[in-house]
Write a structure and sequence with these properties.
This protein is an all-alpha fold. It contains 8 helices and 2 strands, in the order ββαααααααα. The chain folds into 2 domains: about 35 residues, no CATH class; about 140 residues, no CATH class. The termini are far apart.
Length: about 210
């Protein structure tokens, strides 16, 4: 039987989350990223007790990149970075083509330029060249504007700093993984993935927005 996730390798592991057989590679790489593993999964328990060397190196690399992203950010900027990262991990475009890291970098760069210009008292909408980047920027911009509503140039400067920092991080990630065109997005999914032991949190429309004094 061929693995239904990759469509190439043999399916040899029973996945309780998907209720089907998948291959060992997909089990290891998509665990807690694309597959919502239950806490009683034997493969998950084994991986936690005896993580392979490649996974340990990946975690160390993720922590290092995350530390560089967060360096010297103040509390408001850190909250804003978390907001953007959460948006990117949950973003699901209407079309079938999902954005790759290059699209994300282009979208973040254009928004950063727009906020940098606005912080100097000028209004100019910088637009990405690619269609996917344009759609991502269009979806993210109102989220940022709502977060900083009424905060003026202080928020615009913070937003530009955070967006540039994430744009820089994409280049850093590409140096480690040049073949994966979603390496940065995969990193965000790993570090933002909730623990399977954590209780579910129900989102409500009345949840408070990011407060920027």
């Amino acid at each position: 039987m061929v693995c239904p996730l990759c469509g190439t390798r043999r399916a040899r592991r029973g996945c309780p989350a998907l209720d089907k057989e998948i291959c060992a590679v997909c089990c290891g790489t998509k665990r807690l990223v694309q597959i919502r593993c239950p806490t009683d999964c034997a493969w998950l328990a084994t991986a936690r007790e005896h993580p392979p060397a490649t996974l340990v190196r990946q975690r160390q690399r993720d922590i290092g990149i995350l530390s560089r992203i967060l360096r010297d950010l103040n509390e408001r900027q850190s909250q804003l970075l978390f907001l953007v990262a959460t948006f990117l991990t949950r973003y699901q475009p209407a079309e079938l083509h999902a954005p790759i890291d290059d699209d994300v970098a282009e979208a973040l760069g254009s928004l950063a330029a727009t906020f940098e210009t606005a912080s100097r008292g000028l209004i100019y909408d910088h637009r990405p060249a690619s269609v996917l980047a344009e759609r991502l920027a269009t979806a993210l911009r109102p989220v940022l504007e709502e977060a900083g509503r009424g905060a003026g140039s202080a928020f615009e400067r913070d937003a530009a700093v955070v967006l540039r920092r994430l744009e820089e991080a994409i280049r850093d990630v590409r140096t480690f993984d040049q073949t994966n065109r979603q390496a940065f997005l995969d990193l965000l999914r790993r570090v933002m993935a909730p623990s399977p032991d954590a209780p579910a949190v129900e989102e409500t429309p009345d949840a408070p927005r990011l407060i920027v004094p």
